[in-house]
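Batch manifest, entry 17 of 40.
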Amino acid sequence: MENGHSTGKATRVEIDGDIATIIFDRPEKRNAMNEALVGDLDAFFSKPPEGVNAVILTGAGGHYCSGLDLAEHEQRAPVAGVYHSRNWHRVADLIEFGPLPVISAMTGAVIGGGLEIATSTHVRIAEPDVRFQLPEGRRGIFVGGGATVRVSRIIGADRMREMMLTGRNYGAEEGLAMGLAHYSVGAGEALPLARKLARKIADNAPFSNYLMIQAISRISDMSRHDGLFTESLAAAMSQTSDGAKEGLRAFLEKREPKFR
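Output type: C-alpha cells
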C-alpha cells in the first residue's frame, strides 16, 4: 500500500510501503492523552494493517505527547480507576510485545503518559527541544500507564522517584545519557532518522525481529538460569528459520540478504 492514509479520532495513520507512521493529532492540546488516543492505538496495534513491517510514532505540532489531558480527566471510583489504568497497560503491552518493531520520533513534550507510551516503543529518537518529565507529584496524582515498570527499568527506581517528587524535566542529551532516548539528533531530524531506521529494521528477518521484541524484555524479568535457558531456545529457533537460511546464503554469496 503506497502512501496510504487513514484518520482516527485522535491520530492520523500514514502508510508508505511497509512502514506505517502513527501521528498523534491533537496539536492544540500538545497531543495530550485522552480515551480517543488510547482507543486509536488499541485499534491499530490490535490488528495492524496487512503488509506493515515497522511502525513510527510521532506527534503533530511540535510535541510528541504531553501526558494526561487534565481538562478531560474524570474522577473515578477506585475500582473504575484500576480498570482504566489496566486498560492503558494492555494497550502499552500491545505496542511493546506486538509483532511489529516501533520507533518513537520525539519532539517537544514527552511528559507523563507520553513518556509511558514512548518507553513501550523499541527505538527512541529525541530532538533538541524534547523534555522528559513525570509531573504527577505536582498534580496530586500517580502514574498509571506503566511508568513504574517501563521508565523505572530504564532509569532506575531512585531517579524515577526524584523525577516524580520534584517534577524535574530532562532534555534530549540528558535523556540520551539516562536511556530514555537511544538517539539525540538536530531539529527536524527525528522523523527522517526514524524512517531510515524503520527501513533498516523492516528489512531484517521477520522472525528474528519477533524474537528480539518478545524475548529480551521478558528474559530481563527472569532469574539468571531461566533467562539463559530461554535465550538458548530463542537462538535454536532462529537458527533453523528460513531467515537464517537466507542470511547464510547471502553471506556465502557476498550479497545483501532478502528476507521478504
